[in-house]
């Protein structure tokens, strides 16, 4: 049975209770994990506070060395981690490997930034005085992570937190704690320093408390000793996080839902755009906050584009992620599949046409899991659920437009504003979209992808603050103004 990690030790919950983690492709139990309580969180906060005193005094260069070594240790366990991730989340083994690669790259990125934090010298009007701005770590941070990319989204919180000198408590999704625990075990072994002076990460610098969000996550939000919350998840839960954490005036970032538009002009590289529409929508079974969720095609290319994309979907093998032939795994939760079915049925009832898919993937072993066919819809009305809501699964609605201004207006009609893309060879079109699309990120002729080097986050109902990039460090450091007077 798996254990929580508190204070550098693998432990059970103080309640002694456990719950099962099941494979969404087979329904089989993968493992049992402790059902954490508020007392477990309090214990984790205590050891994290103690570890903060030591870790914040470690030189930034050594913090960077530790993160680099952590990445190497994770790479050494990558096959075992990928297998666990596939079994608990459902994604294909290939996709799990890519997620681990992204996690390691993020740790390496913040390893390089750890020693690059800068302050400022500020001239003051008072004679013989000058000011400085120094940036200091905040203290104990909480990272609340969803189930769709549990490792990548854990890394976007852990990397900058540790690089800045903070300590952190990770709360993984109840359904995907196993690969996270194995990764954190490796990070706990990471070393820094040279020779006999070599040390490991202080016990308690990184902790993992498993269990229900309403208990474990809620304690992280309420407890005043946790000074920073980084949350990735639905907009609905994000509102609750903001409300509860706000009572304690915590620093927060929220990376929430999205309904990313992909706009394809008639002058685009259409073969590339078709390929990227497939990956951008159906990678990870479409369970991506920044996935392509609304496809806008200029009228002159729409029919041919849809035909080519449908042919790709017909060749896509849906199945258990551990099988080499599988190109798309199951929906992670049965409740999620039911919601997707309702959204598709609503679109059909309003006049949408199913070009491909639109139903469960059935037969043999598929009946054991939460499988759904990749689905392509046309003639989708603007008032349908797949147009207005976030569709967190392998469903792509297609819309047509005459002019770029019309496409941008439709794209901006969503309450969300996470990512977006335009596909064109016309520089004026590209710059217009960059300027006018209401989104935290705009990709031009590129797949929707969260690069570690660039800030990532949303506007409107898609969130507050930024992860990734040097900008993420700003949310893990407190600026302090200092005045020095020569006397």
Given this structure, which CATH class of the largest domain is correct? Alpha Beta
Task: Give the oligomer, counting copies of the same chain as homo and different chains as hetero.
Answer: single chain
Give the total of domains. 2
The N- to C-terminal Cα distance equals 65 Å
Mean pLDDT: 97
Number of helices: 14
Number of strands: 24
Q: Which segments are poorly predicted (pLDDT under 50) over 5 or more consecutive residues?
A: none
Please list the strands of the largest sheet in the order they lie side by side: 16-17-18-15-14-20-21
Radius of gyration based on Cα positions: 23 Å
User: What structural class do helix, strand and pairing data support?
Assistant: alpha/beta
Strand content: 15-25%
Shape: globular
Query: Could you give a short account of the major beta sheet?
Result: 7 strands, mixed
